[in-house]
Amino acid sequence: MEEIFSQSENLNSMVLTPWMLSDLELIGIGGFAPLTGFMGSADWQAVVEDMHLATGEPWPIPITLPVAKQQALQLHEGERVALRGEDGQVYGILTVQEVFQPDLRYEAARVYRTTEDKHPGVARLYARPPYCLAGPIHLLRQRPALFPKFNFTPAQTKEEFANRGWRTVVGFQTRNPVHRAHEYIQKSALETVDGLLLHPLVGETKLDDIPAAIRMESYQVLLKHYYPASRVMLATYPAAMRYAGPREAVLHALVRRNYGCTHFVVGRDHAGVGNYYGPYDAQDIFSNFAPGELGIQPMFYENSFYCERCDGMASEKTCPHASQYRHILSGTKVREMLSQGIRPSSKFTRPEVADVLMAGLAEQGVSELPTK
Questions:
Q1: Nearest 5°: CA angle at 296, between 243 and 50?
Q2: Residue 144 domain flag
Q3: How far apart are CA 172 and CA 195, in angstroms?
Q4: Domain tally for the chain?
Q5: pLDDT tens-digit map of 25-51
Q6: Which structural domain, as residue segments, surrounds residue 70?
């Protein structure tokens, strides 16, 4: 390994943004398997058009490495390039197989279902350099973990599941604090499997999302007071959020398969943003794949809510009461309340979680969250 680091100092290099570094890391540790490098034009085309790699394996979103035109035209096939972070450290090496220029508007239309740059994922896509560098990578180091206690590679989560005797595990993706509807869904799923992997995304998110440090504290206090410790594991997912709605739901399922989960929760408006996707589009998209093709079983849940007449959590399938008795819960509503300095009630989130959210934002000097 020291020899490889030494050699990397003599290679042409490019600087990766935190988003690109998270993709590099997930490829390197197996989180994005079967990918072994950044996609070339054939895989890009197949994924954008058909949600499969050129080899036929399911994959919903291009994982590409943008590079500026001037540098792209100087590289040649077979050349090795050192991949550096903004801190100057070398995190990996890529062997160039191809340099290509994707059609970003076409990618936006197919993957995000819109070409509007008001969509945060599309805006990021358009802001990237126009060329892409493709080829296999060798991961040399990972970035220092934001939350070391909860930082696990796919191999490590699989080992931990085996040690706990879990044969069936449901994964739950979130970029929000866990509110009562999330808890209701998680515990409903946990009734049918051996364990729950609470796997929050801690990479880049929108400005109005709750900071990862506050969210992580809220997850810990929730699990401590309301979940059986022997049946839940908290681990971080170091990816950036793409806000690609239905396609990102499929990506999240495949990633959790790679981390050892057998089941994956797909709820209402999974990975959505604004009004770009229908409430259950992220569930409907799974019908595009043959049974068993993804290697993980999606679990679909309707919108859950707190019903005053039921005096508890319920859904359309279990509650007969009129809408005026229902408190519809969502991460967006919780963020809106916090942005106005309003403490969420126990109908929205557990008191211990509300304490963490209010105190955490105050401690960071965030009296209000951005509304956009």
A1: 55
A2: no
A3: 11
A4: 2
A5: 999 999 999 999 999 999 999 999 999
A6: 2-139
